[in-house]
Amino acid sequence: MPRILSGIKPTGKLHIGNYFGMMRPAIDWQDKGEALYFIADYHALTTLRDPKLLKEYSRGIALDFLACGLDPAKATLFKQSDVPQVCELTWILSTLTPMPMLENAHAYKAHIMRGITPNVGLFAYPVLMAIDILIYDSDIVPVGRDQKQHVEITRDLAVKFNQTFGDTFKLPTPSILPDVETIPGLDGQKMSKSYDNTIELFLEEKPLRKKIMGIVTDSTPIEASKDPTNSAIVELYRLFASPSDVVQMESDFRAGGVGYGDFKKRLFEAIWNYFGPMRQRRAEIQADPNYVDQVLARGAERANELANATLSRVRQAVGLS
Ligand code: TYM
Predict the structure, then answer these.
(1) Which of 117, 160, 167, 240 is deepest in the core (most CB within 10 A)?
(2) Could you read off the pLDDT of 79-122 as tens digits, one per residue?
(3) Is the minimum distance from the CB of 34 to ligand 1 under 6 angstroms?
(4) Apex 207 CA angle, 206 and 208, nearest 5
(5) Helix (H, G, I), strand (E, B) or coil at 7
(6) What are the backbone dihedrals phi and psi of residue 177, each rounded to the nearest 5 degrees, phi first?
(7) Residue 123: which residues within 8 A CB-CB, separation 6 or more?
(8) Residues 6 and 176 sit within 8 Å (Cβ to Cβ)
(9) How far is CA 23 from CA 26, 60, 92, 162, in A?
(10) C-beta 141 within 6 A of ligand 1
């Protein structure tokens, strides 16, 4: 039975990119092996310095993930910081990590390009992420396209460790769904908290409508034919609508006579209906103040069990035991 692992950084509210890139595939995986999903709060510290917000976002992720269908009877959900063993292993692995490998990591390069002075934590982020994966002997890592490089670094570091100290770590494989490679945001770029172009999963009706109506479009007049192959509206609609509704929208784009405002309304309806049952489930979970804490506590227990076994294996391998 394969072991499946993935994580989400609590640096904001969950959005549609997270949902289609990682959460939905992760939820599908929970029936196919032992699934472990975690809230990457150590990672969030590299950019978030607000303890209240960190707690709020971490809890929000747990709540949203459960509302979307993560079943704690099948999958383990936990907080990264409930397994501090990852920090010790990160140190050990960092002593084998070549600096140039991290200098080439795209998240680090993106920060430099945006003029943000990187901290050591941000620089070393891929090593912590490698340990997040290796500590649980993970086989499969469902992630969005932007995380692929990190899983490749994980494999490289595991190979390096195994060559140096003997077979210790299992090599993981990323799982990226080809039909949801990168979900576009309101401006057509990759949907990302850092670009401020996200559509959150559980927005209220009014703000959601406002966001959708704010999707950036060109100034093609209503009567004119429009190109459906290059439109964030169509791309997003495809995720939520039935194939026949998508075909209809594409043909209405080409025919002309329908404005972008109208297409955005269709998109709003599709998103609103799609998340309807999950909104309801979310309200039910929220009504029980202890539910989320209990799920996370149970998750931490299982994660610790697995982490302790790997930690003692590694300590032994390097001569620390
Ligand atoms: P994070 O929090 O940025 O994103 C969580 C997951 O959502 C996916 N995603 C997207 N997929 C498609 N289109 C988009 N626009 C989009 N935006 C986000 C991401 O690819 C990711 O799968 N470093 C990770 C968290 C992490 C992790 C790990 C993941 C830490 N340790 C170990 C897997 C294994 C991150 O920052 O994800």
Answers:
(1) 240
(2) 999 999 999 999 999 999 999 999 999 888 988 998 888 899 99
(3) no
(4) 90
(5) strand
(6) -75, 125
(7) 102, 108
(8) no
(9) 5, 14, 30, 31
(10) yes
Which residue's alpha carbon is nearest to atom 20 within ligand 1?
A: 144
Pull the structure tokens for residue 99.
Answer: 């600096």
Residue count (the chain): 321
60 & 90 share domain: yes
Domain count, the chain: 2
State which amino acid sits at residue 71.
Answer: D
137-159 residue pLDDT tens: 999 999 999 899 999 999 999 99
In a domain, 284, yes or no: no
Q: For residue 255, what is the domain's CATH number?
A: 1.10.240.10
Euclidean distance between CA atoms 112 and 289, whole angstroms: 42
Residues 24-65: pLDDT tens digits? 999 999 999 999 999 999 999 999 999 999 999 999 999 999
Q: Tokens 């090599």 belong to which residue?
A: 171
| Burial class of 197 by CB neighbour count within 10 A (0 to 12, 13 to 18, 19+) | buried
Q: For residue 193, is it within any domain? A: no
**DSSP letter (8 states) at residue 308:** H
User: Residue 55: which domain range?
Assistant: 3-182+289-318
Query: Based on the domain organization, do 9 and 117 belong to the same domain?
Result: yes
Nearest C-alpha neighbor of 8 from the set 73, 50, 62:
62
Give the closest residue to 94 by CA, choosing from 48, 136, 135, 126.
126
CA 101 / ligand 1 centre spacing (Å):
20
